[in-house]
DNA sequence: AAGCTAGACAACCGCGTTCCG
DNA sequence: TCGGAACGCGGTTGTCTAGCT
């Protein structure tokens, strides 16, 4: 492992902090405050680098930090935000007073990720594993009969190893199973994430960059909802990737009666055995994409995508930049053809790997 | 009692961004 | 405008501890 040059040169201490060091840090910060961390260790009489001091302060010593366990509400918040924006831990932590990004990240990695896996949900995409498997098996219609299912992510694999039955935790009374978490993640959401986080009553509470993120999230999630009007997706899973171009949408769409009915009639058992997400009719998919991009452009012109907070020009600009990125993905021909060209590319990749694995049966597929 | 393992969490590392002279 | 220092972030590693064999 390569040590930072500063620590090597100055023979600075590393590793866990002692109580004495903590006391020195606290004494110094309470007297002088934070700022210029490179000067802090010297002034505080610590043989640490500034970076280490800053980390110790922000992650542990800060007086406003909570050191107790996460509440179910906090869990739910983390899951929802992770579904919406991915591993942007600092942004997620901002929504949880007294929690640091490190806290949230550690909690996710040690608890929540496992919990979701055990519930049959891929913690990366927040989709049921069965759907991912179905998607995988149906990409471009590619899969040779009788062949192995190729590379899967680690969480999916471990979940499959655990049990093929859907949501074993929920069905078998998993000891620490949290029903709220289940609701937040997999049930048909009565209150979609974009509504929960983005409505006017709440936006004041979010920093501008998060607002920008949320605006993009709103666009993407609405896109997901609207692109499946014929085959309603049971949960309104928020797409984690903002750069995803595999969605088509109309920003103004709202839940239809058909959607509501479908939600009520929804059965997880059926869903998990079903391949409901995949477009069945290529023409319909194309039409939807075309309509959506036009509709999007129209809405954009009307200024619907602008952030209402006129006091914050920077936020507006940033938001527009991000919204534009989404717009590009939606409007470009590449997007409209995503189902064919992207799949063709993926198909080619998968086939290459398939052939390679045939030639080298002992070779581990990537994704590990 | 000793060794092993997994879980929890603290700390580190590298890299991108921001700030400032 | 540029370059270096400082800062912030996300991923990864290290360490400690409890439970099990």
From TrEMBL:
PROSITE patterns membership: HTH_MYB, MYB_LIKE
Keywords attached to this entry: Developmental protein, DNA-binding, Nucleus, Repeat, Transcription, Transcription regulation
Domain HTH myb-type as annotated: residue spans: 9-65, 70-116
Xref: InterPro entries: Homeodomain-like_sf (IPR009057), Myb_dom (IPR017930), Myb_TF_plants (IPR015495), SANT/Myb (IPR001005)
GO cellular component: nucleus
Short name of one Pfam family: Myb_DNA-binding
Subcellular location: Nucleus
GO MF term (any one): DNA binding
GO biological process terms, semicolon-separated: anther wall tapetum development; pollen development
Origin: domain of life: Eukaryota
Primary site of residence: nucleus
Tagged with keyword Repeat: yes
Myb-like domain sequence ranges: 9-61, 62-112
Name the UniProt record assigns to this protein: Uncharacterized protein
Originating organism: Lithocarpus litseifolius
């Amino acid at each position: 492992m390569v040590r930072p040059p500063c620590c090597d040169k100055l023979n600075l201490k590393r590793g866990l902090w002692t109580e004495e060091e903590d006391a020195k840090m606290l004494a110094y910060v309470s007297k002088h405050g934070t700022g210029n961390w490179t000067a802090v260790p010297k002034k505080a009489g610590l043989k640490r680098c500034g970076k280490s001091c800053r980390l110790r302060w922000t992650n542990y010593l800060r007086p406003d930090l909570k050191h107790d366990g996460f509440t179910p509400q906090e869990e739910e918040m983390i899951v929802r935000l992770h579904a919406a924006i991915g591993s942007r831990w600092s942004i997620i932590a901002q929504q949880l007073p007294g929690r640091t990004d490190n806290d949230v990240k550690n909690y996710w990695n040690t608890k929540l990720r496992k919990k979701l896996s055990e519930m049959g949900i891929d913690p990366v995409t927040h989709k049921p594993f069965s759907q991912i498997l179905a998607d995988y098996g149906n990409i471009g219609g590619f899969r040779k009969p009788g062949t192995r299912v190729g590379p899967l992510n680690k969480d999916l694999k471990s979940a499959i190893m655990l049990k093929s039955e859907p949501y074993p935790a929920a069905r078998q009374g998993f000891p620490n199973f949290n029903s709220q978490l289940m609701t937040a993640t997999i049930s048909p959401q009565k209150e979609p994430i974009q509504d929960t986080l983005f409505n006017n009553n709440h936006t004041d509470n979010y920093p501008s960059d998060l607002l920008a993120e949320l605006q993009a999230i709103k666009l993407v999630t609405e896109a997901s909802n609207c692109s499946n009007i014929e085959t309603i997706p049971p949960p309104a899973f928020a797409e984690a990737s903002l750069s995803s171009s595999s969605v088509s949408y109309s920003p103004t769409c709202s839940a239809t009666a058909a959607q509501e009915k479908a939600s009520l009639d929804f059965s997880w058992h059926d869903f998990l055995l079903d391949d409901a997400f995949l477009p069945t009719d290529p023409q319909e998919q194309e039409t939807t994409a075309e309509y959506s991009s036009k509709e999007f452009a129209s809405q954009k012109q009307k200024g619907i995508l602008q952030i209402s907070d006129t006091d914050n020009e920077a936020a507006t600009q940033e938001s527009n930049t991000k919204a534009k990125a989404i717009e590009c993905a939606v409007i470009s021909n590449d997007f409209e053809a995503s189902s064919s060209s992207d799949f063709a590319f993926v198909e080619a990749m998968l086939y290459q790997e398939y052939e390679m694995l045939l030639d080298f049966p002992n070779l581990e597929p990537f994704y590990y």
